[in-house]
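input
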Amino acid sequence: MHIDFNSEVWHHILVSLIILTIAFIVTKILRYSLNKFVKTASLKLNVDPTKYNFIKNAASFIIFIIAIIVIFYRIPELKDYGVTIFAGAGVFAAIIGFASQSAFSNIITGIFLVIFKPFRVGDHIKIGTDLMGEVEDITLRHTVIKNYENRRIVIPNSVISNETIINSTLNEYETCMHIHVGISYDSNIDVATKIIQEEAQKHPDFLDVRTSEDIAKGVPAVRVRLIDFGDSSLNLRGYVWARDPMIGFAMKCDLHQSIKERFDKEGVEIPFPYRTIVYKDKK
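output
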């Protein structure tokens, strides 16, 4: 199809730019309004922002699709070209359908993620065995995870739906951190247990989750259990609660240091594997 760059062509270009500009402005206004609504409502009603982020992304996509359709409809040449394409679109549709399977799979999966909510924006999750971070956004195509190195991990929705997800903040933010410590068989278990409990309760981020009944029964604020007998150590595990996973991780690191220092002062040994080497005389 041959097109001369005359005034009519420039008119079509101007109309297309105006339509796209209007679509862009409408999208910006819509996203701004939804952002303002979510921020206001979340303070009063504790609104989950996940579905609103998804609506923003879906609405932007739909608005631009409508804008493209309007452009094709307003320009006779493009309208005829579009009719020609759709008239013989059998093979073309098959190619597009095959190529877009992944895209549609991501969109459908994104809708399921919003409906069933295995995680929401702001949740701290672990995906598989390696990826950990905070859910930053759920779009039509992918989910954005901000990891603890402040990097963004972009995962297609169809991929993340097939992974095992550990959600640390789905219903409750409080987190129980496990403090694993091995002591030698010659060390006193009661002394080591007391040190772990005292150091944990001294930490400013320690959270006492005991009920009034637990306190009346004398249940300790920090439980410490002997979980198994290692090759060279008695393995203890302390159960220490924090307000959320991020605070709990920092508290756990602090306790590793403070417990080690107390063990050194009070003679509790943290063993390392011993090896006995036997030399045989060569004949």
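quick obs: The radius of gyration is 30 Å.
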